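Chapter review: from sequence to fold.
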Amino acid sequence: MKMGNNSSAALELSSLIRFRFSAMLVIGMMLLTSHQAFAWQTAAPKPEPDTLILTDGEKLIGQFLHSTGSSLVFKSDLAGEVTVDWSKVQELRSANKFAVIEKGVQLRNKADVGEVPQGNLTVANQQLQVAAQPPAAPQAVPFSNTAYVLDQATFRKNLLDNPGFFGGWKGALTAGASLVQATQNSRSYTSAVSLVRAMPGESWLAPHNRTILDFSASYGEVTQSNTPTIKTNIIHGGLERDEYLHPKVYLFGSGAWDHNFSQGLDLQQTYGGGLGWNAYKSDTADLNFRASADYIRQQFTNSAFNKNLFGSTFGETYSQKFPRGIVLAEALSITPAWNDLNAYSALGNITLGLPLYKRFNLTLATIDSFLNNPPPGFRKNSFQFITGLTYTLP
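The token string follows.
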């Protein structure tokens, strides 16, 4: 009898536990469902899309992104991102807030925020109407006087924020390799790192300073049985700091370290500083000229030819962006030594970047290095043709 009573009590206790657990599960699901329903009811409504009407009557629905110079970029729901000249715009309506930077306005620090019209944007009669916060009156900016238009959040973030030294870096990483296994075994490897930190990092802000770090290496060897190994080893490292006196003029200090086994050069150290001039700059092109005074220490495999030189470097750089993300960059410099006119050198390179997938590009480059005073048995000229895969940093 006692065993039967114990079994019955155990069954009742088990049923009670299952009932309570089921009840708690149902109550929890009801609370979760009611919370989701409340969240859906109280969620902020989706903002109204922007509307762009062209002079020919075509109407685009989507989002106005930004404007540079005489054109704007609009992300259409149907056509994707399109670029339109302001002269073809009849009307633009947007519920978002924007900042309109006029031509000739130089923005350098937080105090300049008030110089830029900010607010809701409408376009009519070949003018941008910026509705500021009341009681301020709306401001009208003609198309012809507009340099940049960008969303207010981006404008304030870039003008007011001051990232630390480890922030704001941009650049690219490149790597390439070639292997041949036959009577002769050939291996070659190339790598390059290029980093730039421009402060501020937006073209619509007056530049303050720029830091440039670059490194490249090219190594190769050809081996064959009972034959001496043929080796190539070229390494370059560079550091530069620019301080802008004017949006187009800057002072710079630089250091460069070069090793070229093919020219008998163990290490060439170059330290100097000078003046740079940004002769031309647009959304697609950039042309710079520069001149510096340098101290150069040359150390060769034959130490009898080592030299301490005082010279100058005169150079230019040019870059051009083409449609579909194609980029061409070119640089040329010549370095005469004033205390030894025979010990001059020159460097030229051309790089072509072809987009492959997202941030990956195919890079084709030529580098020509000329050294007029190598030790006997070494050629003055060192030419490289490089192909590699490049990853562009965010």
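Two observations follow directly from the output. Helices lie at 2-42, 152-160. Residues 355 and 361 are 4 Å apart (CA to CA).
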